[in-house]
């Protein structure tokens, strides 16, 4: 029988199949060897199980820490208890997590509670005091702030309710979720959150109270969100405790939040950043903002006076606030990074920056890269991503024998950007202090935020003026390439009438529809240093460089306001011709969708197709229905800078395997037919790559993404198709197949 397992810091698993069991430091037939260290005792501890309470415990034979507390006597182990065996010799720390098997978690939770005389009598009087609106509000707030935030919930909506009342109904909600979950990993995690004392009131589970039947499709994502918010709560709590205890801080307003993520290496933050200007400071404030103002409450996070995002609305550096979906993904990414430390957060030690990596760059290379970024920024490829290969090609023209790879280039760009942001923040703090107290003596800030020295002792310095220039010009170029120019200047064309009405320019016969696009494209292609006076199309008037820059600043400021307003709004309601027609069936699923359905700005779903339950027509992560059809708007294979529509279809092959077909509206007589959807789109990307001035050495693309098969809404409807439950390899994400059977 498998009772539990210990999982080490580096991912090793030790299965506990017999009890009692010794945790040993040597091979043993009756114990579990969890370490190989000559400097520790042979027997470390003994695991036991109380059958009546189904409760695990450990008896230490040497110094142990459970949840950061030193233990010397028998101690109870809960699911996900963290165990640490101190050792000064081994390079890899002896951290372990105690994990219970994937059984029905509520069964044992109820069994233990019953044996320990917990109150299990439904409180009818308390239950009658809460309306359905109260319960809906509680559910909403728990999904926004997480379980256990009783003070916050009282402050927001439940000032007249006690914490015990709120907790009792919250526990009922969590148990109701677990009853419907088929994922026992998530179920065990949710049960482990429940806080309950013997004298607490008890509210029994009732699916109707929480209207979870209508949310079956979303229970997995709801559970993941609750667990994510619990991790944020635990992380913030430990940070506050550390600051108050170790730094002697008595006032919580004096907490040094810049240290929140300081122990995590810089390299962990590079991928999936919401914007090119995004730094560790923004990550810290995002986590802090979610804790303080709630998950998805982006408007309050953006405007909060105690967070750094408030400066974006007044910034002249065109740093647009990221889209809600992008911020949500970043929060999940940050929580994943935090979870890797398994609760052992070393807030005392700031992670070392990539100094060794930095030293491999000469002063000349750093200076050339800095100048190139100020002039040209980071290019954007046809796929909407930063084109590091093009940036490297331009840098090679300025530096002989430049040998850095694209990963090293990206890291150095982020290092320079971070230092510029730090310099600007230091300057702002200095201005604030000067305005706050004229009598306060303040040391003048250094002209550089730090010195980077090579082996000859030369210096590469970034001044405040350099930082201003870098931030303004790189962000302006990125904003133009990412917002104004894509999709055949869709944003510009949409608001052209407002541009003509609101943005006056004192040049006779100047036509914004023609000339604004002309000067914007010129700047994007040449950069700032290459910008020369332009002869305007059709009117033969020369526009000076100063006039061009002033006009482009006007346009960027105008469109930044529009983009900011768009980014913080909720998604608009679908129009009547786009509405999903949803009819609930007995399984809580979806029966009908009105097609065509606009999934996103670049994807339209035309047909769902039919399921063939053959192994060739599905995988672990995707379904490939015959007759599926979607239309993807993407860069043209034939005309650089143009976008067109590609019709994506899944066909039934003659050899028992599906065929994938993509047809460009520009070449309907020559469709691309391959054995995989990725094969089709690699062919398209190679054609697009050939049109580019700076070609990529290797093209990578996800065909399932381009077909729309990775879209959550599309997957939901495909999972509801007839015979989908017969696809044996496929792992359902939104449909509860076990309960269907």
TrEMBL record:
<dbReference type="Pfam" id="PF05964">
    <property type="entry name" value="FYRN"/>
</dbReference>
<dbReference type="InterPro" id="IPR003888">
    <property type="entry name" value="FYrich_N"/>
</dbReference>
<dbReference type="Pfam" id="PF05965">
    <property type="entry name" value="FYRC"/>
</dbReference>
<dbReference type="GO" id="GO:0005634">
    <property type="term" value="C:nucleus"/>
</dbReference>
<dbReference type="InterPro" id="IPR003889">
    <property type="entry name" value="FYrich_C"/>
</dbReference>
<feature type="coiled-coil region">
    <location>
        <begin position="392"/>
        <end position="426"/>
    </location>
</feature>
<protein>
    <recommendedName>
        <fullName>Myb-like domain-containing protein</fullName>
    </recommendedName>
</protein>
<dbReference type="InterPro" id="IPR001005">
    <property type="entry name" value="SANT/Myb"/>
</dbReference>
<keyword id="KW-0539">Nucleus</keyword>
<dbReference type="InterPro" id="IPR040092">
    <property type="entry name" value="TBRG1"/>
</dbReference>
<keyword id="KW-0175">Coiled coil</keyword>
<dbReference type="GO" id="GO:0051726">
    <property type="term" value="P:regulation of cell cycle"/>
</dbReference>
<feature type="domain" description="Myb-like">
    <location>
        <begin position="129"/>
        <end position="174"/>
    </location>
</feature>
<dbReference type="Pfam" id="PF00249">
    <property type="entry name" value="Myb_DNA-binding"/>
</dbReference>
